[in-house]
Design brief:
By secondary structure, this protein is of the alpha/beta class. The protein has a single domain (8-436), classed as TIM Barrel (Alpha-Beta Barrel), CATH 3.20.20.80. It has 15 helices and 13 strands. It has helices at residues 15-18, 29-34, 52-66, 77-81, 86-97, 113-117, 124-141, 154-164, 174-198, 221-243, 249-254, 268-272, 325-339, 364-382, 425-436; strands spanning 8-12, 70-74, 101-107, 147-152, 204-209, 213-216, 278-282, 286-292, 307-309, 343-348, 387-393, 412-415, 420-423. Helix 14 (364-382) packs parallel to helix 15 (425-436). The chain is globular. It holds the Pfam family Glyco_hydro_1. Substrate binds at residues 17, 108, 152, 284, 393, 400-401. InterPro entries: GH (IPR017853), GH_1_N_CS (IPR033132), Glyco_hydro_1 (IPR001360), Glyco_hydro_1_beta-glucosidase (IPR017736). One of its GO terms (biological process) is cellulose catabolic process.
Length: 439
């Protein structure tokens, strides 16, 4: 099984999950959230994380040993506000010095707390501030970073952050979640404009979404309708304005009891639809809906709080997420056929319990998960999808948001007490995949 020449093999992380060094920047919403009792398992925070800020040179050497062709990282907006872009400039130079492509994400959920205090993503001004931030980072790093991503998984930022409250900033308001989704979309559109103005003409711009691979449990009218509703508020709320010129009519009807959408102004949807070069797809699992039941609140599905999800069956990861590599093939082929945009799998991976024994970590379940999903990507390419790359989530074990340090996604094990890194078998496996450009 061989991949196209130039296929980009990488791994990904996010600033708050790995950097630590909080003393060098202002607070983000995840600092505030994680320091609030009861919000994160075991009271864990990202104050130290895996100390990537101080250990980035040895971490980049580790990436080179694995053979990574690209490293997808995010920039901490609060760190940039504090005047520290040197860290990212040094990181980019270190990556380039090892022959690794820097793939930069501007926003991976760590909104500056001062902006949340002014309304956060429910405020239109946050989108304007994001465009200013994008311009600053592009002016400093644009000559050395060939691929830029505006936002990572804006669905999580909007609907887990402002709808269900499971993520920072922890709000539980359906109308706020929909306003946040729009302003994240607008931030992307204005951010693309800012990047295009500052970057070289050959630089590429993208966004990374986590489309919900949702299907009805059967052919009943209720199950089909439930799947349509989740597709609307889970997927087309972003894909519509990105590629179809505006928000889908059925989404607007589904949510009329929640909001009147007056936050959308003339010209917004055109700005959101600014052309991009590649669409990032983050994939972990699928979902099945059975129909409707009692309303569940707080909910990440404003207007569809009564949709009933089917229990997960079959093998699962430690997150209790079902393992379904075929769902990735279907998703990639479906997005390709529907929107015709070049794609990258910008996150894919699994959490499993890991233990260091005699200086090694055997993780056969993760190896099999990755093997099957890499195969699924190859099947999508064979079916005609324009796939440019694949990024494992994650390079190293790290702070897993509301789960703290309880879940390990890395292909490299981290002892959080000593910060010692140990390759898991999955890292050795991935090294051979990269070397062979396939399996």
């Amino acid at each position: 099984m061989r991949f196209p020449e130039g296929f980009l093999w990488g791994a990904a992380t996010a600033a708050y999950q790995v950097e630590g060094a909080v003393e060098g920047r202002g607070p983000s919403i995840w600092d505030t959230f994680s320091h609030t009792p009861g919000k994160v398992d075991n009271g864990d925070t990202g104050d130290v994380a895996v100390d990537h800020y101080r250990r980035f040179r040895s971490d980049v050497a580790l990436m080179a040993d694995i053979g990574l062709k690209a490293y997808r990282f995010s920039v901490s907006w609060p760190r940039v506000l504090a005047g520290d872009l040197d860290f990212y400039a040094n990181l980019v130079d270190e990556l380039l010095g090892h022959g690794i492509m820097p793939v930069l994400t501007l926003y991976h959920w760590d909104l500056p707390q001062e902006l949340e205090d002014a309304g956060g993503w429910t405020a239109r001004d946050t989108a304007a501030r994001f465009a200013d931030y994008a311009a600053v980072v592009a002016a400093r790093l644009g000559d050395r970073v060939p691929l830029w991503t505006t936002l990572n998984e804006p669905w999580c930022s909007a609907f887990l952050g402002y709808g269900s409250g499971l993520h920072a900033p922890g709000r539980t308001d359906g109308a706020a979640a929909l306003a946040a989704a729009h302003h994240l979309n607008l931030a992307h559109g204005w951010g693309v404009q800012a990047l295009r103005a500052a970057l070289p003409s050959d630089a590429q711009v993208s966004i990374a979404l986590n489309p919900h691979a949702v299907s009805p449990a059967d052919d009943s009218a209720d199950a089909v309708e439930a799947a349509r509703r989740i597709d609307a508020v889970g997927n087309r709320v972003f894909l519509g304005p990105l590629f179809r010129g505006g928000y889908p009519d059925d989404l607007m009807l589904d949510t009329l009891a929640v909001t009147d959408w007056s936050f959308v102004r003339d010209g917004d949807e055109a700005a959101i639809g600014a052309p991009i070069d590649v669409l990032g797809i983050n994939y972990y699992s699928t979902a099945v809906v059975e129909g409707f039941g009692p309303r569940v609140e707080p909910s990440p599905w404003p207007g569809s709080e009564h949709v009933r999800f089917a229990p997960v069956t079959g093998p699962v990861t430690e997150m209790d997420w079902g393992i379904d590599p075929g769902g990735l093939t279907d998703l990639l082929v479906g997005v390709h056929r529907e929107y015709g945009v070049p794609l990258m799998v910008t996150e894919n991976g699994a959490a499993f319990p890991d233990t260091v024994v005699d200086g090694a970590v055997s993780d056969p379940s993760r190896v099999e998960y990755l093997r099957s999903h890499v195969g699924a990507v190859h099947e999508a390419i064979t079916a005609g999808a324009d796939l440019r790359g694949y990024f494992v989530w994650s390079l190293v074990d790290n702070f897993e948001w509301s789960y703290g340090y309880a879940k390990r996604f890395g292909i490299v094990h981290v002892d959080y007490a000593t910060q010692r890194r140990v390759w898991k078998d999955s890292a050795h496996w991935y090294r051979e995949v990269i070397k062979a450009n396939g399996t």
